[in-house]
Amino acid sequence: MTIQSGTFAADNLYLPRPLVDAAVQAALVEDLGRAGDITTLATIPDAANAQAVIAARHKGIISGLPVAERAFKLIGDRRGEELHFEPVVEDGVSVQQGDVIARIAGPARLLLSAERVALNYMGRMSGVATATRTFVDLIEGTGAKVTCTRKTTPGLRAFEKYAVRCGGGSNHRFGLDDAVLIKDNHIAVTGSVAGAIRQARDFVGHLVKVEVEVDTLEQLAEALTASPDVVLLDNMGPDKLREAVAMLEGSGVIAEASGGITPDSVRSIAETGIDYISTGFVTHSSPVFDLGLDINVS
Q1: What residues are paired with 49 via a beta bridge?
Q2: DSSP assignment string, 206-275
Q3: What is the Cα–Cα distance from 274 to 257, expressed in whole angstroms?
Q4: Rounded to 5 degrees, what angle do the CA atoms 7, 161, 153 make?
Q5: Where do the domains of the chain lie?
Q6: What pLDDT does residue 6 have?
Q7: For residue 205, is it left (φ>0), alpha (ψ between -120 and 50) or beta?
């Protein structure tokens, strides 16, 4: 799949600074350990300065520049020194092999010690953004939107969901506390699709959306008697999805498809008239984007 050029709403991409700093600090502590970067301390003079570039090793979508910037900033704060970080592109931009993503300059010891933390975040996030853009490009023109799931790397959910937006996708709920999603096991215990919806509605009030997962048209018909906000049509093939979309016409209920959706199947799913396609693939199966840091000593 050819990756389209352009930017997806870079001005609207946002990661809270306290969240970023806490995660980056933890990653730096993990990497530096009890004794610090002993290789760099042993081989690099304290007064040495360096300039470096972060460059793309292949084409894709960039994500994680604000996180990388904080890695280089926070390691400098430890010694009262400063690394200068200059982004060359923005998150959400398509790049080609060899493109320079950012420039860094300052104390060589600090630059080398923060390198891996910065690249780890950017590589993971850019990989998610690139996988998401592939899905977005594949369903172009259908009217459907790609959204992510909670199938994220523990501790990295906010970063991976940010990366999904960099790739042109949208975010599903961030956790168990920001929306109701009644799944098959909830229904199994509750005993009724409609009953579970009504109980959820009574519990959370009018400001919280209520979504219910169904895997048959019979369950969908029952769900509609309780007026959910969203129905998650799970593991239905294109033919059954078309029937489900027809049943939902005029109801005002949002239709979302899920269940093992891959680049090979996403277009046929989107062409059924579905509103959203939720896929864990973009977060749990996206390859890391290959970025390199190339250094010049001064």
Answers
A1: 107
A2: TTS-EEEEESSHHHHHHHHTT--SEEEEES--HHHHHHHHHHHTTS--EEEEESS--TTTHHHHHTTT-S
A3: 7
A4: 135
A5: 10-128+287-297, 138-284
A6: 41
A7: left
- The residues annotated with a catalytic role in the active site are 116, 151, 183, 213, 234
Query: In 10 A of CB 253, how many CB atoms?
Result: 20
Pick the CATH number of 138-284 from 2.40.50.100, 3.40.1000.70, 3.20.20.70, 3.40.50.11030: 3.20.20.70
Cα dihedral value 67, 68, 73, 76, nearest 10: 130
CATH 3.60.15.10 fits 10-128+287-297, yes or no: no
Look up residue 51 and give its two tokens.
């300039």
* Inter-axis angle of helices 17-32 and 65-77, nearest 10: 60
Report the distance separating Cα 206 and Cα 185, nearest Å. 24
Structure tokens at 11: 């001005």
Q: What is the pTM of this model?
A: 0.93
The CA angle 160-164-165, to the nearest 5 degrees, is 120
Handedness of CA 105, 109, 115, 117 (dihedral sign): negative
Q: In this predicted structure, what is the pLDDT of residue 4?
A: 41
- Ranges of residues in the chain whose predicted pLDDT is under 50: 1-9
The CA-CA-CA angle for residues 153, 155, 160, to 5°, reads 55
Share of the chain above pLDDT 70, in %: 95
Contact 240, 217 (CB under 8 A): yes
